[in-house]
């Protein structure tokens, strides 16, 4: 199953409270990371489908710098843990939830 389909079907249902445009940008970033195989802001921006490379880079920069996204990380990680499909994802997501809760 493609990464964006997983996000739509599983995480999308669990993360109804995330802003629609931010969630769409997160899906695009996931697709760009799977295509480009690199997760720097510039690489994601170049790999994302946009009218112009500069617009894609700017979109990814705004996503990564979005303070609201960091507040929604426990929701996203909780949805990943609920997938219960991969022990590595479960342990990383659990660790990240604890780090978010403690303010680290």
Spell out the blueprint of helices and strands.
Layout (H helix, E strand, L loop, with lengths): L2 H12 L5 H17 L4 H7 L5 H12 L2 H5 L1 H11 L3 H16 L2
Helix pairs in contact: 1-2, 2-3, 3-4, 6-7
Explain this structure.
The protein is mostly helical. The chain has one domain. It has helices spanning 3-14, 20-36, 41-47, 53-64, 67-71, 73-83, 87-102. The radius of gyration is 14 Å and the shape is globular. The relative contact order is 0.13.
| Secondary-structure content class | mainly alpha
Would you tell me the overall average pLDDT? 77
How many helical elements?
Answer: 7
Helix content: over 70%
List low-pLDDT spans. Answer: none
What are the main properties of this structure?
104 residues; mainly alpha; 77% helix
Short description:
With 104 residues, this protein is mainly α. The protein contains 7 helices and no strands.
